[in-house]
Amino acid sequence: MDYLQIEGGNRLSGSVRISGAKNAALPLIASSILAKNPISISNLPNVKDIQTLLRLLDNLGASYSLDGNRVDIDTSTIDSTTAVYDIVRTMRASILVLGPLLSRFGHCEVSLPGGCAIGQRPIDLHLKALKQMGAQISIRSGYVVAQAPSGLKGSTIIFDKVTVTGTENIVMAAALARGKTTIVNAAKEPEVVQLCEVLNRSGVQIEGIGSDELVIHGSDGELLPMEDIEVIPDRIEAGTYLCAGAITGSKITLREVIPQHLEAVLLKLMQMGFPLQSDDSSITIEPAKRIEPVEIVTSEYPGFPTDMQAQFMSLALLAEGTSIIEERLFENRFMHVSELRRFGADIQLKGNIATIIGPTKLFGADVMATDLRASSALVLAGLAAQGTTNVHRIYHLDRGYEKIEEKLGALGAKIKRMRE
Ligand code: UD1
Predict the structure, then answer these.
(1) pTM of this prediction?
(2) Residue 117 above 90 pLDDT?
C-alpha cells in the first residue's frame, strides 16, 4: 500500500492547474447511458473513482477508451443491467447508474451501497422518488431491484432533504420519462447544473437550472443525441490547494478554476485574513499577516461545502484563537479529528460541533487517512508541521485528487509517494 511522506515547514510558490471535477464527471459518465450516440468527455480527472465508474459501465457491456483526460464512451452495447456489489461497494456514487439504467431499460439491479466512514448515507430519497415515477422497487439479496415495465412517468418529487446524487439520479431518470417531472428542493451544486445543461443541450427541456425547483420534460423513451462534454473545474480540489497555500503562508495561484463556484470558501479565507485576488479563471492567495479564527457551518451549495470542512479544520489549527466548525450534512464526518490530534491539535468535539483552539505548533506524525477529504486535511497539516509526516492509507486520497504529490511537489512541497 502507498503512503505519502511529507517534510513540513516549506513555503510553496508558483501556480497549479486545477483538474476537472470528479463529482461533475461521475454523473456525466452515468448520463452516457441515456445517449443515442457514442460520446466524448474531456477534462476528466484521472482518479480512482472515475476508473471505478468506467469499470462499472464496462461490466454492463458498454465500451470506452480512455486517453489521458478524455474518454470516449459507447453505451449502445450494454447487455446487462446489473451493477454488481464488487464494484458498487468501492464507490457509493455508483448509485448514479440507477436512474439512467431504469429509464432506458425499464429494469435494473443495483447493489445497495453500504454505509461509509462519514455516516450512514442512505439512498431512501432516490428510491422514493423513483417509486413516485412509477417504479416498483424491492431490496433482494443486497440489491435494489427496480422495474418500470411501461417506462417511468413524470411526477412531482419533493425531496425532504437536499441530495446531490439523488437530484442527479432523478434528473437522468426524468430525461427519458413520459411527461413532466418537477423536482422541488433540488440540489443547486455546480455539478448538478452542469448535468442539467448537458441534458438540455441534448434536447431535454429543463427549466429552473441552478434553482431549487427543476422541471424536466422527458423524451418518452427516446435516447438522446448527446454532444461532447468538457467537465467543469473541481471546486473542492481548488479549495484544497487554496488551503495548502494558506497553511504554509505562501503565495500561490490556481489556474483554470471558476471562482464563482468557490464563493463560500473564498469568503472564509478572507475572514481568516488571507488576501485573495481572482479573475475569470484564476485565484491567487497570499499569506495572512495574522490568521483569524473562523466559524463555519457546512450546508448545501451555495453554502460552505462539507467537502471542505476537514481542510479548514487543519487551517484553523494555526489561527490565533478559537474556531468553531459545525457539520450539518454528515453525522460522522469528524474522523480526522483524532488524527489531527497526533500533530498536537487541541480540538474538542461535542456532537456535530468541533471547537479548535489555536494557534498550535504542529509536529509531523504518522497518521491514517479515513476518507477522501479527511486525507487531504492530513496532507495539509503535514505541510505545515515541523518534521516528517507519513500519511497512510492514501487510497482514499487517490479516489479524488489527481496527481496530488506531483502538483504539490511542483509548488515546492517536499512530498513523496512511498510503499509501505
Ligand atoms: C454528494 C457528493 C459528496 C458531498 C455530498 C454533500 C458526489 C459524488 N458526492 O454526495 O462529495 O459530500 O454530496 O455535498 O457528488 N440523504 C438521505 N437520503 C438519501 C440521500 C441523502 O438521507 O436518499 C442525506 C445524506 O445522508 C446526507 C444528506 O442527505 O445527510 C446529503 O447527502 P447527498 O447530497 O445525497 O450526498 P451525496 O449525493 O451522496
Answers:
(1) 0.97
(2) no
